[in-house]
Amino acid sequence: MKNEDSTRIRFVIAAMALVVASNIYGALTHAGPRFALASTAFSFAVMVAWTAYRRDPVLARWLVIGFVAGWLEIATDAWLVANTRTLLYPRDEPMVWDSPLYMPFAWTIVLAQIGVIGGWLSQRMSTARATLLCALLGGSSIPLYEHLAHDALYWSYVNTPMILNAPLYIIVSEFLLSLPLVWIHRQAVAHSWPWSIGLGVLAGLWMIPSVVIAWRLVGPCAGAMIQFSCR
Asked: What pTM value is reported for the model?
C-alpha cells in the first residue's frame, strides 16, 4: 500500500508539472484556445492511460469525481459570464454553454490531482490540517493557471480586483471549493466506485456557492462586503 501511495503521488506531482509547463509555454507564446484544447486533451489522456496501466483504484475514483464535477462546473461558468460579466472567453473555439469544450476535462485533471494530494496529506496529519493545506493548494495552484491563461489568450477577466491576472474572488472561491476534497477522498476510498459519481455531483454543486460567496465577499469593484480597488 505504501509503495502504491508513493508511486501515485510521484505521478500526480509529475502530471501537475506537465500542466504547469504547458500553461507556461502557452503564456510565453500566446498560444490561444486551440493549444489549450490540445494540451488539455494530452494531459487528460496521460492521466487516464497511467491510471488504466497501473489499475489504480484511487486515481480512477478521482477521475470519475473530477469528470462529473467538471461537467457541472460549466453551470458555474455560465453564472459568472451572465451575472458578474467579469469572465471573457474567445468566441472562435468550440463551446459548451458558455465554457470552452476543454474546460470539463481541465477540471477533471485539476480536481484529481489536488484530491489525491489531499488524501495523501490526510494519511500523514490531522484531518483539519490536511483540509487546510489542501484548500491552500487549490487556492494557489488553480489561480496560477488563471494568471497564465491571460497571457496564453485562453480567457481573461475584467472589472474585478486582481492579484496579477487572477481575480481575488477566484482565488477565494478556489480555496472554498477545495475545502471538502479531503472528506471526498475518504468517502471515495471507503466505498465502491459508483459512489464517486455522487461525490462528483457534490463537488460540482459546491462550486456554485463557492463562487457566489467569493464574488459577494470581494468580487465587485463597488459594493463588495470586503472592498478592494480595481486596477
From this structure: 0.96
d(CA 39, CA 52): 20
Domains of the chain, residue spans: 2-218
> Rounded CA gap, 143 and 66, in Å?
18
pLDDT in tens, 178-205: 999 999 999 999 999 899 999 999 999 9
List pLDDT tens digits, range 20-49.
999 999 999 999 999 999 999 999 999 999
Residue position matching grid coordinates 492521466: 47
Q: What is the 3-state secondary structure (H, E, C) of 39-104?
A: HHHHHHHHHHHHHHHHCCHHHHHHHHHHHHHHHHHHHHHHHHHHHHCCEECCCCCCEECCEECCHH
d(CA 81, CA 56): 37
3-state secondary structure of 156: strand
